[in-house]
User: Fold this.
Amino acid sequence: MTLEIKRRLLVNMKLIFVFFLLFTVYCSLFTSVYAERIKDIARFEGVRDNQLIGYGIVIGLDGTGDKGQAAVQGIVNMLKRMGLTINSDDLKSKNIAATIVTATLPPFAKPGTKIDALVSTIGDAKSIQGGTLLLTPLKGPDGTVYALAQGPVSIGGFAAEGEGAKSQKNHPAAGKIPEGVTIEIEPQFVLGNGDSIRLFLHKADFTTANTIAEQINRELHGAYAVPADSSSINLTIPDQYQMDPVGFITKIEAVDVRVDMPARIVVNERTGTIVIGDNVSISPVAIAHGSLAIEIRETPEVSQPLPLAPEDAETVTVPRTEINVKEQKGSLVQVSGVTLGEVVRALNALGVTPRDLISILQALKAAGALRAELEII
Assistant:
């Protein structure tokens, strides 16, 4: 083999190596941008939160509690259970408030675990600032007491009021008790049936469910995942994971899957917020949009009697009204776009406000030019 042939082979090998390296980097970037972990887009059957609720009494308020007898009756009942009998008519205090205490019980919570509590007034209490929640049992939907709540309430603000002024920050009639709930009973969770387990998607989509099943089968080297519908996937636990379901779940959660996003535009008419998805496109169409602005200004003018006017002459106030009408000229503008950047540039070319843009999007949807689902919240 001549030296020239060896040199050419070396150059070709270097080019192949560089091409392979660039292809690997491109694939890794593509996966990192468009792929998401299964644990971020789905959850396993049995892994869910549960809601707890209870009736509690907040004491130690500075005259901002309930004016009625609801909270007082609760205090009387509590003192009676403690062996102290007291008449409700003798207990007239605005330093207590009747509240509803709620908490979210996480999955697989063990006794002794601390979680946050949300305390909300149900009476006419003005503020629970500086109050302390008395021991409150929190029940689940089945009526079982799963946790106990107690502690000082934090409202994250204040409320001050005088005879002629009032100052308030945040909402003083509701507050939180950080780690004020102690779990007493571990709820029963069923994680699959031993041989299989189901995976539930946060957002139902047939394409995404099928992609997840294919990616899991590719990762496990077998047909272990079968999509049941658009929101659930049936998983058969392999033999090597029969005694290690946690390891199986951990492996599945770490699998990267490309999520298929539908073409959708979300519009909030109250705030004028518009969110456009990546797959939204607009067919070529011409738009003319103009707005009408009417301004009415009234200025009162005082007319006084002249120096030699009769004695019965009175001073009168004559209103002066000015009306200005401005109508912007609307010219036809061609709008089209296939990618998200083209759609944004085309809509920005109209030079309209977000609220006007909402009307334009609705008109585009009615005309059939908007290739996306328009969701108004």
Q: What stands out?
A: The mean pLDDT is 79. The longest strand covers residues 292-303. Residues 192-258 form one domain.
